[in-house]
Amino acid sequence: MSAEFWLTQLHENGYRITGARRAVVETVEKSTRALTPVEVYDMSRKRYRALGLVTVYRTLEKLEELHLIQRVHQPMGCQAFISAGQGHQHLLLCKNCGQVVFFEGDDLESLTKSIAKKTGYQIQDHWLQLFGMCANCRTN
Amino acid sequence: MSAEFWLTQLHENGYRITGARRAVVETVEKSTRALTPVEVYDMSRKRYRALGLVTVYRTLEKLEELHLIQRVHQPMGCQAFISAGQGHQHLLLCKNCGQVVFFEGDDLESLTKSIAKKTGYQIQDHWLQLFGMCANCRTN
DNA sequence: ATACTTATTGATAATGATTTTCATTACCGA
DNA sequence: TCGGTAATGAAAATCATTATCAATAAGTAT
Description:
The structure is a homodimer. By secondary structure, chain A is of the alpha+beta class. Chain A folds into 2 domains: 3-83, Arc Repressor Mutant, subunit A, CATH 1.10.10.10; 90-139, Dna Ligase, domain 1 (2-Layer Sandwich), CATH 3.30.1490.190. The first copy, chain A, is 42% helix and 24% strand. The first copy, chain A, contains 6 helices and 5 strands; from the N terminus they run ααααββββαβα. Chain A has helices at 3-12, 19-30, 37-44, 53-65, 109-119, 135-139, and strands at 69-74, 77-83, 90-94, 100-103, 122-133. In chain A, α2 crosses α3 (37-44), α2 (19-30) packs across α4 and α3 (37-44) packs across α4. Chain A is globular and about 55 Å long. The two termini of chain A are 31 Å apart. The A-B interface holds A 71, 73, 75, 77-78, 92, 94-95, 101, 103, 105-108, 111-112, 114-116, 118-135, 138 and B 71, 73, 75, 77-78, 92, 94-95, 101, 103, 105-108, 111-112, 114-116, 118-135, 138. β5 (122-133) of chain A pairs antiparallel with β5 (122-133) of chain B. The structure holds a DNA duplex.
């Protein structure tokens, strides 16, 4: 997963590759923590000074549509984005620095089966997110 | 868990019991789906006509602080509230009608242990939510 | 290369949600 | 019943997001 791949994806889906998009893509793709639109704006403007906040919103919208980024839900709100995991992955977030790690291998089969039986619901998706303290923040 | 209990909780924490709070509490406590502040406002005004939207925000803030309600995260946003589960409970939401059911009994011990080892994180909380279709919506 | 079509842009304005301010009201303990 | 003060609603202020629009530039056809 590189910024170039993201740009290719945009292009292949009929979107043009522009300086503004390049800047946003490079910022978001490189980040290891979830960023709000304004954070993306501030950081991307170091690469492309003329960038407008509106373009950030529009670009994030397209990246989300192409499943290149995903929304991250946190206690304080859910308006932050990070690159999407590949396949079935979940997030582990550091409560202190915001660092995000992906993981997979959750087995909720038996849980969802039993809940489905108990509630009569047909269970389709699940959201799982872990919160903790990363090694770095723990020692400092 | 009754509206009266919530009011008692408010009172015991030094907050006054007023007509406005009564209306908000009765609305939220009784709901089986997550409600946005504006929805709470509209519904509560049937009980207490003079209610202001600002008071709804302020009351929800206090109820959340006392852990009587919790924020519900959904794909479209996370500005909706529902009564808090008791103890360690998670949510199952109907994608169609919004109906919420609580469940418990998730065992993520082994998962978090292995993720902790792999990542070096000290895992503190987890956040699990299931989405599906309730029995009622499924048949209609 | 050059011209042309049209998606994309940034600025501005509009909208929507939430918070702050403040004078008035009404809880509730004494 | 009274009085101090928390709580209220209305209005204004703030903040985030979306819509509008004329100017620009990406990328295709020439």
